[in-house]
Amino acid sequence: MKISILQENLSKAALSISKIVSSKPQLPILSNILIKAEKGKIVFLATDLSISMGLTVGGKIEEDGEVSVPAKEFTALISQLPAGKIDLFSEKDSLSIKSGSFKARLVGLSGGEFPRVDPPSGKGLEIKAGDLSLLLRRTLFVTAKDDSRPILTGIKLTGPEKGEVKAMATDGYRLSVVTVPAGGSIDAAAVIPAKFLSEADKFSGDAGIGLSINKSGEAGVAGEDGWLSGRTLAGEFPPAEKIIPEEFELEISVNRSDLERAVKIAVIFARSAANIIKWEIKSGKLKVSANSPQVGENETVLDVEGKGEGEIAFNGRYLLDYLGSTDEESVNFDMINSLKPGVFKAKNYLHVIMPVRVQK
User: Fold this and answer.
1) Does residue 131 share a domain with residue 233?
2) CA-CA distances (angstroms) from residue 333 to 18, 107, 279, 281, 341?
3) pTM to 2 decimal places
């Protein structure tokens, strides 16, 4: 293989493709990216066996070929080179890099050892770029971050029905349900890994993405300069909607900016006290408070509109996560009592947080 690529394009591609590479790969070859030149195209490939990515990079091809090189070292090296043309030459299982007066050689592995990865085929769900970004903004932060229950590391998609797709995510302590406009179709509800959807968002461009999901449980996204493929998560997503109460004893609305400021202040006092923040709603006022023996105590009183009185306590970090996911002027909050889930409502967006039980 003998190719030339501008440093800016090469660095951008290397940075993007390296995000797919696992930090703890099952096989040594999975620490590498595959660089391939054939049929007039320069393609970068990476996989962790659950998610695969292919990127097409503009450049000049003098000789076809392929080689796989360590993703971490290759990306770090290319990012340090000056702007301009970079020449890449494959020599058996190594890659020589030349830029101006600089030259280096990276020890790699044969391209034949790299797992076979193919671009997705077919069409399915169609979501516009802005709608996908909104969906992810309101669900990604809720997905589980560990693999103890793999199904919770994904986002469940159902529909579209009446021109909308529903997304649901939960980590067992909170729940987000979002609907956004969508076209196309998927055969049935599917749970898509959060990592896959996060990367898919970067392929959306201005027009949006087409997310294909086949009967074998494979999901795919294709853009102008690349593609992404992966497997949906096996297992049954918990019936999280069953925890949403149908009737409430308290229904209020409060200014979002004021509430976010009050919670941020309370978090300062709650950090050494299990991050617990207390709410007390009474006589048209919401008192947000926190205290700890090591730091002290605080309270902020806000005006609210609505009906009902009550007390409830939440994890302050969960509150800030929710408040950062919405830009509505007012927050609508409903509850039954201190032991039942608190429900936050906005247009096409419902968020539930389980309360913290505290002793009076």
Assistant:
1) yes
2) 42, 58, 12, 11, 11
3) 0.87
Distance, C-alpha 84 to centroid of its chain? 33
Taking only the tens place, the pLDDT of each residue in 39-98 is 999 999 999 988 999 999 999 999 999 999 999 999 999 999 999 999 999 988 899 999
Indicate the residue type of 78: I
List the domain range (segments joined by +) for residue 229.
Answer: 125-241
Residues with Cβ within 8 Å of 39's Cβ and at least 6 positions away in sequence, in order, are: none
Q: Are strands 125-127 and 102-107 parallel, antiparallel or unpaired?
A: unpaired
**146 and 236: one domain?**
yes
Tell me 240's DSSP state.
G
Report the 10 Å Cβ neighbour count for 86.
23
> For the range 107-113, what are the long-range contacts, defined as Cβ-Cβ under 8 Å and sequence gap of 24 or more?
108/32, 108/67, 108/68, 108/69, 108/70, 109/28, 109/29, 109/32, 109/67, 109/68, 110/67, 110/68, 111/34, 111/36, 111/65, 111/66, 111/67, 111/68, 113/29, 113/68
Last residue of a domain, one of 241, 259, 281: 241
